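Run log // design_07
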């Protein structure tokens, strides 16, 4: 639609855009030479005459006047525009930075855009346009706890702390990247390499935030700088503890001081000022009337300091209470005790006693030190840990496992768990040893060794039998030697693991007989060299009459020498036969399978299996003087 109005020298025609939001010049006529007459007032007049009441766009009007003076067309220049509706908008932050990254103290990170209410618009021809949204805009607010500041005149937002900008419940918050532990004993910071504008973050920015929190403890600069460097290199945030409090030192409980040797020492000083922390002397021996020791009162602890510099009180030490049993007597001072019996001093669960058996609460480790007793037995309610020693004249019972330790007993050793070693330890006793399993172990016993499940890669020497016949009953790898015999369900493995099983045999000591035999042989050789080896009658017949008496004496000595030599040979043969016959009675029995790779050694002979054998008995044949395999 277009309308035309005329002045004396200027006439302008207008048209509306399709959306009726602008009126533009669609045609115009100006008398030649009067282009200078076009003015803002004329355009206002022409618009009013055309029925457009909107406000003239002065910039557009001046633009048209300029073009006309330059001899250019002014067609399509929009002189009046309608009013678009204002959509309602919530308050928001305008920032040119990436707010997924932190802000630091003093940094202006954006502007606060206030909430805007919606309002209707209007077309050039007066039609009202309502907003599309009926949203009720919500403004953003800032509180004292927001961690940022708003400049009211400019709307600029600046941070007071190191953190990430968040909007929570319509409130702008700089969420700290610094966290104080619940116990106030440490502060952890999350380090980013760069801030929201891509600038390097420095440790001083974090220190400023700590100051705002009134932190009194010093910053751990090395930890902080290391975390910052890694964050820049990896472009990933890193966490580090940057402030630490000092933990309170708990008070020391009352304790019992043993008389004589310092059993509470941390170890024994060796040559070169080295300390053996296993030698703690925790189990002294006493006799009747001997002072055992005394009770010491608890000692106060030392206060700590949290990250705010506040003192944290230490836990108090507890009073030690001791009940003496019938083997111990308390002295008049109420804190000292003496023995009424001979044995091992044991303080357990507050009961002080002298006993023949020492019972540990748990493992033999640094809490107990090595255990060496002059009398009695030991019951270990746990493990004997690697590197420790238990040495007693009687029995040892271990509830769990013997690790790479030295365990020596004058009688039996019983292990409910296993014996597991790595090359340094040894289990040795003058009685029998029983265990559930053994691996890489070094075992020696004067009695029987009984393994309930598996004996693997171990070195064993037993004067009694070696049994592995309950449970799996497997002997695999290692070297097993017994003076009496070996019996197992299986020996070796189907992959041919070398397993050496020996019957230890000590041949009779015939050294003195051999020496006599050699001496007699020498004497006989001299005689025969002197008179010859012919029979006596031939030698006498060839001897001169005046020398026959002397020759008869020589022949008598020769005969006696031969008789002695014969008797010695008979004795040697008898001893060896007795040895081989005794050896024949000892055997290695395999109830199920003996696998290739098994090496049997008996009586100086060796037999290596090339194929599996079922239910077999290996023994030494005294007649054949070799190892044979027979049916079990």
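design_07 sequence
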């Amino acid at each position: 639609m277009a309308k035309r109005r005329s002045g004396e020298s200027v006439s302008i025609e207008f048209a509306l855009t399709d959306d009726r939001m602008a009126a533009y010049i669609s045609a115009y006529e100006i008398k030649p030479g009067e282009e200078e007459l076009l003015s803002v007032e004329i355009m206002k007049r022409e618009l009013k005459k055309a029925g457009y009441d909107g406000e003239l766009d002065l910039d557009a009007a001046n633009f048209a006047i300029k073009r006309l003076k330059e001899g250019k067309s002014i067609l399509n220049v929009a002189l009046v525009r309608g009013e678009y509706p204002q959509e309602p908008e919530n308050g928001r932050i305008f920032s040119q930075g990436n707010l997924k990254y932190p802000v630091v103290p003093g940094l202006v990170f954006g502007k606060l855009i206030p909430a805007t209410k919606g309002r209707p618009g209007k077309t050039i021809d007066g039609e009202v346009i309502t907003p599309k949204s009926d949203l009720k805009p919500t403004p953003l607010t800032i509180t004292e706890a927001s961690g940022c500041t708003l400049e009211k005149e400019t709307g600029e937002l600046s941070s007071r702390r190191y953190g990430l900008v968040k909007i929570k419940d319509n409130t702008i918050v700089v969420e700290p990247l610094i966290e104080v532990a619940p116990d106030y004993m440490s502060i952890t910071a999350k380090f980013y390499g760069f801030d929201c504008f891509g600038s390097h973050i420095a440790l001083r920015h974090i220190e400023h935030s700590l100051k705002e929190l009134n932190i009194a403890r010093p910053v751990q600069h090395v930890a902080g700088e290391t975390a910052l460097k890694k964050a820049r290199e990896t472009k990933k945030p890193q966490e580090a503890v940057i402030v630490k409090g000092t933990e309170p030192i708990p008070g020391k409980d009352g304790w019992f001081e043993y008389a004589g040797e310092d059993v509470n020492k941390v170890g024994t000083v060796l040559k070169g000022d080295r300390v053996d922390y296993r030698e703690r002397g925790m189990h002294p021996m006493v006799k009747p009337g001997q002072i055992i020791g005394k009770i010491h009162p608890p000692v106060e602890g030392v206060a700590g300091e949290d990250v705010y510099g506040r003192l944290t009180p230490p836990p108090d030490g507890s009073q030690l209470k001791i009940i003496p049993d019938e083997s111990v007597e308390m002295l008049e001072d109420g804190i000292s005790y003496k023995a009424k019996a001979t044995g091992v001093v044991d303080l357990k669960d507050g009961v002080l006693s002298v006993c023949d058996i020492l019972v540990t609460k748990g493992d033999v480790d640094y809490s107990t030190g090595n255990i060496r007793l002059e009398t009695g037995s030991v019951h270990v309610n746990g493990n004997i840990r690697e590197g420790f020693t238990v040495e007693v004249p009687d029995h040892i019972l271990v509830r769990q496992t013997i690790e790479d330790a030295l365990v020596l007993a004058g009688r039996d050793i019983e292990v409910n768990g296993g014996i597991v070693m790595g090359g340094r330890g040894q289990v040795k006793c003058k009685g029998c040893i029983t265990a559930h399993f053994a691996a890489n172990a070094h075992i020696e016993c004067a009695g029987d060794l009984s393994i309930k499940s598996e004996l693997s890669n171990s070195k064993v020497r037993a004067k009694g039998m070696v049994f592995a016949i309950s449970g799996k009953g497997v002997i695999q790898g290692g070297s097993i030697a017994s003076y009496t015999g070996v019996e197992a369900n299986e020996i070796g493995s189907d992959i041919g693991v070398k397993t050496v099983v020996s019957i230890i045999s000590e041949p009779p000591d015939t050294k003195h007989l051999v020496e006599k035999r050699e001496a007699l042989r020498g004497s006989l050789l001299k005689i025969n060299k002197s008179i010859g080896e012919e029979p006596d009658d031939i030698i006498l017949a060839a001897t001169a009459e005046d020398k026959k008496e002397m020759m008869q004496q020589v022949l008598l000595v020769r005969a006696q020498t031969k008789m002695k030599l014969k008797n010695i040979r008979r004795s040697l043969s008898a001893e060896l036969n007795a040895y081989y016959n005794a050896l024949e009675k000892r055997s290695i029995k395999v109830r199920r399978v003996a696998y290739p790779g098994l090496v049997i050694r008996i009586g100086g002979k060796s037999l290596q299996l090339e194929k599996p054998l079922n239910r077999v008995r290996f023994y030494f044949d005294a007649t054949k003087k070799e190892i044979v395999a027979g049916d079990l």
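The CA atoms of residues 266 and 277 lie 6 Å apart.
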